[in-house]
Every structure is written in structure tokens, then in C-alpha cells.
Amino acid sequence: MSVIDKPRLDHAHMLSLLESMIRIRRFEDKCAELYTQQKIRGFLHLYDGEEAIATGIIPVLKPEDRIVATYREHGHALVRGVPMTTVMAEMFGKAEGCSGGRGGSMHLFDRATKFYGGNAIVGGGLPLAGGLALADRMQGTSNVTACFFGEGAVAEGEFHETLNLARLWNLPVLFVCENNGYAMGSALARTEAETDIHAKAAAYGIEAEVVDGMDVVAVEAAARRAIARSRETGAPVFLECRTYRFRAHSMFDAQLYRQKEEIEAWRPKGPIVRFQTWLQANHLIDEAEIGQIEQRVDAEIAEAVTFAENGTWEPVADLETHVLGEQPVPPAPVAPSGETVAMTYREAVRQAIMDAMIRDERVFLMGEDVGAYGGCYAVSKGLMAEFGEDRIRDTPLSESGFTGAGIGAAAAGMRPIVELMTVNFSLLALDQILNTAATMRHMSGGQFGVPLVIRMATGAGKQLAAQHSHSLEGWYAHIPGLKVLAPGTVEDARGMLWTALEDPDPVLIFENVMLYNREEQIGTNAGPVDISSARVRRKGDAISIITYGGSLHKAMEAADRLAGEGIEAEVVDLRSLRPLDDATIITSIAKTRRALIVDEGWRTGSLAAEISARIMEQGFWHLDAPVGRVCSAEVPIPYPKHLEDAAIPQVPSIVAGAKAVLGR
Fold this sequence. Notes:
The protein is 39% helix and 16% strand. It is built from 24 helices and 21 strands. Helix 1 packs across helix 2 and helix 2 crosses helix 9 (216-233). The longest helix is centred in the N-terminal third of the chain and has 26 residues, at 11-36. It is elongated.
């Protein structure tokens, strides 16, 4: 054992280790008591029996290093230095809590200590940790990200996706599996074909070690080795800490899956009993010192409870605070230069990516086949040769893993562009998009934002059949914390990405597959484009045709045909699906007094239904007729061309829909 590996077991350090574990245990005992008094609510997962892991590992980290925890994270937060007062206030849900009362027991965040939160999703923190480490690697630091998770997480795809990515890209992550023997109520042998967890990490070529998680000295020694190794090489290291939780999975758990005798047999092996007994047997500590530790801890806990009880409830008026970050001023329109150039939609997106990477060294692109292949739709062709493999990153086929890595990198200050090959593949990353990207700012009380852009191809028309022809934009537009864009023109395809990359929040951009080859004239001095407002693309007074993305040009053609029959339709291009520009929509229908919504999504539960409801709520008295809708048929998109065409909005169906609203 080297000097680096060996803990300095002087008297002060031994007392510190013991006090840290007692502090965690007594804090959580108090939390359990407060839970029975209904002062702490929701789920409460206690760390009783596992205190040696947080105590042995976290103090070895540097202040610049980052931590991602799981939902059993009170001990991690306390050892990291998050004040007990603010942790307890968070458990109460008070505004003075470390997450502003927004996260509760499972979601403790603290920017000052680089504590990136507990995560209620099993395995959900792993991709985030990979992304934080990716940011450190790209920024050239020697930082390490420590990621704590239970053995139940090893069954999740995000575990395997992240370990593969960390080894592939040599990311400085210290993976810490707190193997307490039970994934909620299922013993490890009942859920895993291979119960040797460190062997799973070793299979990915990651240096892995098993340590007795009940022995705080052994844990610290292993942590010193692992962290020094990761810091030196920049590579991931894996620690499996074999431990045992004495309490239930959560306070709701009746523990019917194990016998009381099993718990009692483990009690003498507990980390506090074990370490304290060893210290006393070797005359390294006396009863007076133990009493002093307990008195200090009890006093601190009493202060924390008083702080929490005297805390304030966040006003209901602040309910929508921290859903989004401080909103930037929309870019000023650029005066046309008078000079234009022909450009395809595909080239516009490519130019936008190039311009962004030149403007801002924090910007990088990653996704499946974006590099050497040039992108499934050839959007990124040639970019790897120009910017290198570090900034144009080919990823494995692991949407949740690399999307989560993008989220982590964004939270650490980078500006990632994540390309998901097609919208249906985004469903594999939905957990990370919904549960992390959209919620991190809110759950952390505004401490951590996710300035991330996710691009994906959407829509039908290429005869790709039911699994590659979805239009799911409306699903994502349902989620608070996201911004959702559907650029329908070359100018928007280029300029919206510019603005999205400067936004403090996650932005999803849906690029309709039928637009990539479309060519339009664009100003040579075209710049950033506002991403919060709709545009009237054609003025009229007979009916408002409201649409977006791939249906925009069909609506424009339908309006031309209607004009041939003396019907002047106004075409509103939504452009932004979240937020929706209600003002432009209502202004248009106030003029035309009729509305037809064209949406490539399915009719039931569609974005068109949402827009129709808003028109009824805000503009009912303007209407002279019911709102009409032209949506995709309620069928999976068929393969044969004639059936595919029949399934999605087309010019004739838009014309017919407009006439129906007009009563013609």
C-alpha cells in the first residue's frame, strides 16, 4: 500500500471517520422519527448500515470534483459539506432547503459543493455522471466525477450504456456501486444472472475492485487508489462496496421479503459498531470522546430541526419559478441585405452547426453516425474532418446513455448538440429527457440548468413504414421544462439552432424528413431567429390555417388553390410548439373568424387538439364556425406509398378541411 493509498489513521482522522458515520446515522434516525410525525413526507430512503461508503469516499475527493448520488443520498450530501440545516429544511419542503424545497428527500442539490443531486430514477444518474466527466475531459481539467448507485441499477440499460461510453471515451468517472443485497425487495440472486457486480464493469475493460463496504478504513483505502488512478489516467474506475441496509428500502416498506433474524445477524457487522469497537479495543478512543461526538451531533441535529421547523413555505405565487431559466431577449431581426443564395434545408442545418462550433468552442455534436458516416440524413457530412473527433462524436447505439451524457455535459457548462437519428429512437432516451433534462432546474431550485439542444428527424413520406414515420412533436410539447421547435423553412432551420444554443434550457428541434432536400433562397446575412413566436406566412381574411414543420408548405399550396376559388386563407406557421404563441393565433382568428389546424400527429390527444382548446378558451367569441382539424389517420403509418399518402395530411385534404369549416 502506497502513501497515497493508505489512510492517515492519526487520532484526529479516526475521530473524524467515526463522527461522520454517527452523524449520518443519528440524522437519519431523527428523519425517521419526523416521518412518523408527518413532518417529512413522500418517500424516505435511509442509509442505515451503509455510512462507511460515503464517509470513506467523499472526503478523498477534491472540492472541484463532482458528485452524482441516488435517492438514498442524505449521507452523501452531509459528508460532502451540504449544511445539515438546509438538508433538513429540504426534507421538510421548506424554501430554505438546499433545493429550495423543490426536490425533497430524493433530490438534494447543492451547487456550492458540486453536488448534482439525488436521482429517484434507478440508474438515472449514471449517464449524467458520464456527461459531467465528458465536460471535464473536453475542458482539460483533472477532475473526477463520483457516481453512487445501488446494485439494482446494474440491471438497467443506462448502467451498461454509461459504462461502455465511459470506457470508450476514457471518462474520469468513479463508479461506486453500494451493493446492499436488495434491489427494493428483491435479493440480488433473484434478479441477476451474474451476482458479481464488479465483474460486469471489468467486462467493459474498466478497472474494478470489490471492497468491504462495512469497513470504513478499507473503503477509504480503495477510494484513494481509485480516485488517484482515475485522476492520473482520466479513465473510469469501478468500486463495488458490499454492504447491508438495516432499515427498510423506504419508510413504506414492510420488509416481508427478509427475516428479522437476517437483519439482526448483520447488526454486529455494522460499520459504526465495527469501527468503534476496534478503536476501543485498541485503546484509540475513550468513552468521553464518544460522548463528545454524540453531543455535538445531537446539538447539530437539534439546530437543523429548529431551522427546518422555523423555515418558510414557498409562496404559491412562485409555483412556476425555475421551470425555465431567465429568458434571453429574442434576437433582433436582421435587415435583409438584398443578396440571397439558394440553400437546401439540409445544408442550412449543417451551416448552423458549423457556425455554432466556430463561434463557441463549448459547442460539440454527438450522436449515432454523425461523424465518419456523415449523419443518417447527411447533415453532418464532412464536419468530422473539419472539427475533429473530439467535437464531432460518434456514439454507440445507446440513446439514453449518450443523451444523458449530453445533459451532464450541458449542466457542467458545455453546449452539446445531441442528434437522435429518428424521433422514434428518442423514446429510448425519454427517461433522460423527461426525468433529467426537463426537471433538473426545477428540482434543484434553479441551481443547475441544462442548456442542451437535441435534434431529431421526424415525420412520414419516405416509405419507412410504421416504426420510422412518427410525428411525436406533440408528445414532447406536453412536457414543462422543455422548448420544442419545428422549423419549416430554410431560414428557420439555420437561425433557430443559433438561438437554441444560446438558450439556458433544453431545446428539442424536430426536422421533418421531407424538408431536407427542399431548396429556398436565404439572405446571405441571415442570422439568429426568434424561437418563441409564430409567423404569418401568408395573409388572408377568410380562414386561418394553423400548422408547422413538414405541413407548412402543403398548407401554403392549399392556400394558393383556395385563392383560385376566391378564398383568401391566412397561413400561420407555429414554429415553436412549446411555448405556443397564443397571441399570434388569436390575432389571426380574430381577423378570419375561422380556423383549421393541420397537424401530422394523430388526431386523438394531438397538438391540434391543444391548439383547438386554446382557441376555444381565448377566442371563442371571435369564431363563426367550429374549429377544424386535419391530422394523420388513426393508424400506424403504412409502407405502400398510396396508403402512406392517405394516412397523413395532404394538400387536397387541407383544401377540403378549409371548405368544410367555411360551409362550402
